[in-house]
Amino acid sequence: MKVFVTGGTGLIGSAVVRELLGNGHEVVGLARSEASAAALREAGAEAVRGGLGDLDVVRAGAAKADGVIHLAFSNDFSSPEALAAGVAEEGAALEALGEELVGSGRPLVTVSGTPWVPGRASTEEDPLPLDGPVGGRGRSVMAVLGLASRGVRSAAVRMPRTVHNQGDGGFAGLLTQIARQTGVSGYPGDGAQRWPAVHALDAAVLFRLVLENAPAGTAWHAVDDEGDAVRDIAGVIGRRLELPVESVPEETFGALGPIFAADQPASSEYTRTTLDWRPRHPSLLKDLENIQP
Questions:
Q1: Strands 185-188 and 153-159: what pairing?
Q2: What is the residue extent of each domain of the chain?
């Protein structure tokens, strides 16, 4: 299968590209910079220059492919306005990708976060939040899944808040960055809130399985660790960086503060059983031991 991939040089995307190539697929990656294009070519993929905002390039990539995996996002969380701009850009790109695939029966696999449900771990059947800081992403994903009625084999892989590799990535990676900047390994509230996690290499396998096998209009959970307490995550970070570990104000985490403070465990039991997905790489707390002081 010839697969068009957006975001193919990030932590998750680079793992997905290698997973696809290693299992007999061809990959064409959207590359915002020459450095990204070079990384794609070095991995064995073809590179097309452009960003998510270049909708003609995005449409052309989808038109020439047998399937699409969308992973790109601005990842600018510096302010609510920057986050909203990134959400809007992604929504327009997903609309362009979807319209190009209507009636083709080809797969479009997009990415979202796992939902959070008060008092229990979320499952694949729970709806995404459509309001709040990232509600726009939820609405875009639901629109993609709705394309199942228009001849697109659409699917969503819901990612936990921390996707990690070698001790870096996701919300835990942001905690590490903030700890280095502030001199405190902090967590909001009492730190009892739980974050799910997955190793990037395990997530990559799931993206391939969904691309190859998932029915139209379905959602899947790329979750290995159902929920680690944030204070435990901060504890490992603090020990590795030799910094104090303590509760800090929610505002420390900027636009993501409310999300950082939420209890959001997630289950992947249905995904594992249905697609025979078997995570085998280190858990988050073990992987954080790779953080260098």
A1: unpaired
A2: 2-161+198-225, 163-196+226-290
* pLDDT-derived band at 192, boundaries 50, 70, 90: very high
Burial class (CB in 10 A: 0-12, 13-18, 19+), 166: middle
Copy the structure tokens of residue 196.
Answer: 């799910």
The helix or strand, by DSSP H or E, that contains position 219, with its residue range, turns out to be strand 218-221
**Which among 97, 66, 50, 71 is positioned nearest to 3, based on CA atoms?**
66
Altogether, the residues listed in the chain come to a count of: 293
Read off the tokens for 271. 């995904």
Cβ partners under 8 Å of residue 281, min gap 6: 199, 201, 202, 224, 287
Q: How confident is the model at residue 77 (pLDDT cuts 50, 70, 90)?
A: low
Architecture of the structural domain at 2-161+198-225 = 3-Layer(aba) Sandwich (3.40)
Is residue 111 within 8 A of residue 68, CB to CB? The reply is no
Residue that the structure tokens 């590795």 belong to: 240
Q: Where is 226: in which H helix or E strand?
A: strand 225-229
This prediction's pTM:
0.93
CA end-to-end distance (rounded Å), the chain: 43
Residue (of 192, 209, 193, 163) closest to 19 by Cα position: 209
Classified as helix, coil or strand, 50 is coil
Distance CA 37, CA 7 (A): 11
| Torsion angle of C-alpha atoms 22, 28, 33, 38, degrees rounded to 10 | 50
The answer to whether domain 163-196+226-290 has CATH 3.90.25.10 is: yes
- Please determine, for residue 275, whether its predicted confidence score (pLDDT) is greater than 70: yes
